[in-house]
Write a structure and sequence with these properties.
By secondary structure, this protein is of the alpha+beta class. The chain is 18% helix and 17% strand.
């Protein structure tokens, strides 16, 4: 009786093609689907520089920044000048032109790191609705970086109730354009 699963002849094992002992050397190992695995020649992974993936190059935009001595009025009537930052002047101009209630305050959000340490994270502009609730936090940065996104990601995990935006020069240029829409 040779057909059953447990009725194999021990002497047949030497000639069985399924046993691992007598596999021909020229045959490639087979996978579950029955197809053979083949080794590709000449392919190498893309080279990495310093172990990090390079960020794409962004085209530089020229912003029409207001004069450094220009003053802006926030929702409380406080007059502010941003003499040290063209980007903040452009952002304040956009918010003023779009009639948004905004504040510029150095209020720190405490962020806790994975090691238990504490960092302070500052947003530049706070946008309010008609009921005096913060509806949006704006961070104005000259370019996106891993450090900024690391802190923003940590902020998002620890303060999920706040909506935030990252304003780069490219985003500011889009918002200054004829079809610039803030979306809030």
């Amino acid at each position: 009786m040779r057909g059953g699963a447990g009725s194999r002849d021990p002497d047949d094992r030497a000639t069985d093609s399924r046993s691992g002992d007598e596999r021909p050397a020229d045959r490639a190992p087979t996978g579950r689907t029955g197809g053979g695995f083949t080794k590709t020649q000449g392919r190498r992974p893309a080279p990495r520089i310093n172990g990090k993936k390079a960020l794409p190059e962004l085209k530089r935009v020229q912003l029409d920044a207001p004069d450094p001595s220009k003053t802006f009025k926030d929702r409380d009537g406080e007059l502010l000048t941003f003499a040290d930052s063209n980007l903040k002047r452009v952002a304040a101009q956009i918010l003023t032109d779009k009639n948004k209630a905004w504040r510029y305050r150095p209020f720190a959000f405490p962020l806790f790191t994975e090691r238990g340490g504490e960092q302070s994270f500052y947003f530049d502009f706070y946008i309010y609705d008609a009921e005096d609730s913060v509806i949006r936090l704006l961070l104005v940065v000259p370019f996106e970086s891993r450090e900024v996104w690391d802190k923003v990601g940590r902020f998002k995990r620890q303060y999920p109730m706040y909506t935030y935006e990252l304003w780069t020069p490219e985003k500011l240029a889009r918002l200054m354009g004829p079809r610039g829409n803030l979306g809030f």
